[in-house]
């Protein structure tokens, strides 16, 4: 069973991710008025909004589960992203609008998330005990795709976070140091999620991750289509970016379809 405190964490975090997605994806050109810091160009805000909406899908799914084995894979990427965003926030604190409720709310949330998660997971482990290995079921092709995605996302995200000045060579539109670090934090988290899926190797446990992964890929493709005027990369660079997110859609769709097929057999 999932302890009550962790279920409430999922509910509150899903609600916050939903709101963040609206502020960043829908109001991508209005971050100077409605977000914690001004984000330019709008393509960056939309990228982050898509990531938050995908997180909302995963967290909302997790909030409905009662089995610890089914929800535990959601926590490592959430924890990693929260820690890295906190580090980026503290490094670039002067970029945040601390004269508004948005700036202070961001700071308070990210200061609180990581230690709260540690406490909740320790309590959960004590209550639930060890989790048996996954049942298997990921096809070889799906595993190979997840390995490739994990490698790309961890390497690219790590480079953007550690060396944000390299963003011009690595990303298809212009990033500031803060936005490079924020995108890098999410990419590292996505890479951790892909590694977690390989580790779990269980189609039933990975249903929420598959839903979120599909959502992420679709929304990132939508974001780059909506804000195509912000792109500065060559045709090849843009094509590689599109291929990455199309492969994410494919991996997520595979998980959903394979799980449904397994449940019918």
Q: Can you walk me through this structure?
A:
This protein has one domain. α7 runs antiparallel to α9 and α10 runs antiparallel to α11 (235-264). The protein is globular and about 50 Å long. It has helices at residues 4-26, 31-34, 42-63, 68-71, 75-91, 101-128, 140-162, 167-170, 177-200, 207-226, 235-264. With 265 residues, the chain is mainly alpha-helical. Helix content is 75%, strand content 0%.
Tell me briefly what this model is.
This protein has 265 residues and is mainly alpha-helical.
Element layout with pairings:
Blueprint: H1 4-26, H2 31-34, H3 42-63, H4 68-71, H5 75-91, H6 101-128, H7 140-162, H8 167-170, H9 177-200, H10 207-226, H11 235-264
The helix fraction, in percent, is over 70%
The tally of beta strands, per DSSP, is 0
So what's the overall shape? globular
How many helices? The count is: 11
Output the helix-strand order: HHHHHHHHHHH
Strand content: under 5%
Tally the structural domains.
Answer: 1
Largest sheet: none
Cα separation of the termini? 27 Å
What attributes does this structure have?
single chain, 265 residues, 0% strand
